[in-house]
């Protein structure tokens, strides 16, 4: 019996074998196809219920299987799973095309859409109808047969290229290991980081020495603390040149092919560029608005960034007689300067941020704001022993959500941090079906002598992903495709980024920032230093984020057909944001998974866009109190629970009473005087 083909509530991880996946995909695609056929062969006149709602709730088993499989391919993959992904991705792409290019189905959807004005629909139903109609019109339903055939070929090719891109980045990340046997090479590293490196070496089969890898919990501390400049350079070059070695793991051709196929696809559908296609369904609306937004922030941030860079150069010169600051010097001297200016470094803070305490802290913040209770349970199947599972309840003990948490790096797990869903929320037949949400991160694991202690940056990452998690957990919509984080992409980062603000507030830190050995609450002098240092090098940080957004738009907001050299194109995109000397051996695009594997193509600007929203939103909390129940309830009722049921600006104004003000971000970032 294939566990994926039986109805299941929680994912049956312990029963699933790899050989179950492909048959389950094939069967559930056929089942979903039969559901589509039932809609198209219905002899009754098309209605919202028998066409739009029927389409919305079709293919649910396929959706569940896909969520289990592709989440595993990110968090616990292996060669066999990657091979299956390469096989099933084109099948799923083809099936998606079979729906959007199904003329009989489109006729029924269009018939309902054309009588929209006379239908008595709710706001959410209207949104669903618009979304379903656009899913056809924006994906080729109005194309000729010849163009439809080409569209199918493009989508199948893109599905495989994106997978290959991600596999290459993961393989390159896993392949590099810096095995050190001379303790002098670790000079500068705190004892906890040395111990973690020794632990890592043992786990990689080395009986002596220390291991540094390109996984963030290993890479970042070395770049921040190691005095050995040559080793920092080696590590930086390895990280910066992932999938840029003209070998079988090289992504240069993949980057060019993805950009060109996306452009061709957009043209086929009647759009000028891929960015024009994507941004039609975003708050920003057009590439011109995105460029205007990025360039406005660039004009504010660049003078500050240049001042900060000069300060860093002078500091490195004074401290170590460094004549030319390089990229591999950035974290090291920034950390030293930060310590000098604020007498604050992560090693002083980490003892107060034991992972379990931070988890309990973010739960407590959610309780104080939204009356949520988190109860760890041990009877839910999980895909790895390290995963923790929680049942989430409201104040009346009603079940709200299941929550999975997976916090440490492994060989089969891609880098970074993300929120995902194993089951969406929806309402049907009087039942409010609750969601299953997951947070996945890569934090430093515990060692023999120390528990997992987080850097402050890791604390904000945990809060960030948990903000996404709350968006999923508190969903309260009728339709799964409008639920939770199914919102305009430049709105999706608001709940995540706004929650980061609580990490800087005394009232919140007192809830969980307690020394792991003594239990002492973090001293308020340290809290004050955290707040004071929050805008440290904000100009440089902003410039860095803007450079990524501009690089994204350079690939997707132009005609890419003439681009032949990935590195030369990237250098041109970075010319207005570069501070450090160029490194010809490195290339960001070949490992820029957000835009070439994930869903951020033409959308990387949204991090900054959402910062404007989050700064403005948190200003409201600050005015009324960071745990003010009235403001929190307005945020929950108008943002977190509403998903994509209405235009995000409408939802935001309902919460805030006005459109967001960019001044709040500039003030918070200390950039107003620039």
Q: How would you describe this structure in keywords?
A:
9 strands, Neurolysin, domain 3, 27 helices, two-stranded antiparallel sheet, alpha+beta, Glutathione S-transferase Yfyf (Class Pi), Chain A, domain 2, 674 residues, 5-stranded mixed beta sheet, 7% strand, globular, 55% helix
Q: List unreliable stretches of 5+ residues.
A: none
- CATH topological fold name of the domain at 351-534: Neurolysin, domain 3
Strand content: 5-15%
Shape: globular
**Structural class of the secondary elements?**
alpha+beta
**Strands, total number:** 9
* Spatial strand arrangement across the major sheet: 3-4-5-9-6
What is the rounded distance between the termini?
Answer: 65 Å
Q: What is the CATH class name of the domain at 351-534?
A: Mainly Alpha
Brief rundown of the structure:
The chain is an alpha+beta fold. 55% of the residues lie in helices and 7% in strands. Among the domains are: 13-142, Up-down Bundle (Glutathione S-transferase Yfyf (Class Pi), Chain A, domain 2), CATH 1.20.1050.40; 176-240, no CATH class; 351-534, Neurolysin, domain 3 (Orthogonal Bundle).
């Amino acid at each position: 019996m294939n566990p994926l083909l039986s109805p299941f509530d929680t994912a049956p991880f312990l029963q699933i074998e790899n050989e179950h996946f492909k048959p389950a995909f094939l069967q559930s695609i056929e089942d979903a196809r039969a559901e589509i056929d039932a809609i198209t062969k219905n002899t009754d006149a098309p209605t919202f219920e028998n066409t739009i709602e029927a389409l919305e709730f079709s293919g649910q088993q396929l959706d569940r299987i896909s969520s289990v499989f592709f989440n595993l391919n990110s968090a616990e993959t292996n060669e066999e799973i990657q091979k299956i992904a390469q096989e099933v991705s084109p099948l799923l792409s083809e099936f998606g095309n079979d729906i959007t290019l199904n003329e009989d189905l489109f006729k029924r959807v269009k018939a309902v859409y054309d009588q929209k004005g006379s239908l008595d629909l709710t706001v959410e139903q209207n949104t669903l109808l618009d979304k379903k109609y656009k899913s056809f019109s924006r994906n080729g339903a109005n194309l000729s047969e010849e163009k439809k055939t080409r569209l199918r070929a493009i989508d199948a090719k893109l599905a495989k290229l994106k997978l290959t891109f991600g596999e290459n980045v993961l393989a390159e990340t896993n392949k590099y290991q810096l095995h050190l046997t001379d303790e002098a090479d670790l000079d500068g590293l705190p004892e906890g980081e040395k111990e973690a490196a020794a632990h890592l070496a043992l786990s990689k089969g080395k009986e002596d020495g220390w291991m540094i890898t390109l996984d963030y919990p290993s890479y970042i501390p070395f770049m921040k603390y190691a005095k050995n400049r040559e080793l920092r350079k080696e590590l930086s070059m390895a990280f910066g040149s992932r999938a840029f070695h003209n070998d079988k793991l090289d992504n240069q051709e993949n980057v060019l092919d993805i950009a060109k196929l996306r452009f061709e696809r957009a043209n086929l559908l009647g759009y000028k560029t891929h960015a024009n296609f994507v941004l039609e369904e975003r708050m920003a609306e057009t590439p011109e608005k995105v460029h205007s937004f990025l360039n406005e922030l660039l004009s504010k941030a660049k003078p500050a960034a240049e001042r900060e860079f000069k300060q860093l150069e002078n500091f490195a010169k004074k401290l170590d007689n460094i004549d030319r600051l390089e990229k591999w010097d950035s974290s090291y001297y920034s950390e030293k300067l930060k310590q000098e200016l604020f007498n604050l470094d992560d090693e002083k803070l980490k003892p107060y941020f034991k992972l379990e305490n931070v988890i309990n802290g973010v739960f407590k913040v959610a309780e104080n704001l939204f009356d949520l209770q988190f109860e760890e349970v041990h009877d839910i199947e999980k895909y790895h022993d390290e995963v923790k599972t929680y049942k989430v309840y409201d104040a009346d003990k009603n079940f709200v959500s299941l929550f999975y948490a997976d916090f440490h790096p492994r060989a089969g797990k891609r880098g970074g941090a993300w929120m995902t869903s194993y089951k969406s929320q929806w309402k049907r037949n009087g039942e409010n079906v609750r969601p299953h949400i997951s947070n996945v991160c890569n934090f430093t694991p515990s060692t023999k002598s120390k528990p997992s202690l987080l850097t402050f940056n890791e604390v904000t990452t945990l809060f960030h992903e948990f903000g996404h998690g709350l968006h999923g957990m508190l969903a309260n919509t009728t339709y799964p495709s409008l639920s939770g984080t199914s919102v305009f992409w430049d709105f999706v980062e608001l709940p995540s980024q706004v929650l980061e603000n609580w990490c800087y507030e005394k009232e919140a830190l007192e809830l969980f920032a307690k020394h792991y050995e003594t239990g002492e609450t973090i001293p308020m002098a340290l809290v004050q230093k955290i707040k004071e240092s929050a805008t440290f090098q904000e100009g440089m940080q902003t410039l860095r984020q803007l450079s990524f957004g501009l690089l994204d738009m350079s690939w997707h907001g132009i005609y890419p057909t003439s681009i032949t050299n990935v590195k030369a194109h990237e250098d041109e995109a970075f010319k207005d944001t570069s501070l450090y000397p160029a490194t010809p051996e490195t290339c960001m695009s070949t490992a820029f998974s957000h835009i070439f594997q994930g869903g951020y193509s033409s959308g990387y600007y949204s991090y900054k866009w959402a910062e404007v929203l989050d700064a403005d939103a948190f200003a409201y909390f600050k005015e009324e109190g960071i745990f003010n129940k009235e403001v929190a309830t307005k945020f929950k009722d108008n943002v977190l629970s509403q998903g994509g049921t209405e235009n995000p600006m409408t939802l935001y104004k309902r919460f805030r009473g006005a459109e967001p003000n960019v001044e709040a971000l500039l003030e918070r970032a200390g950039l107003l005087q620039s």
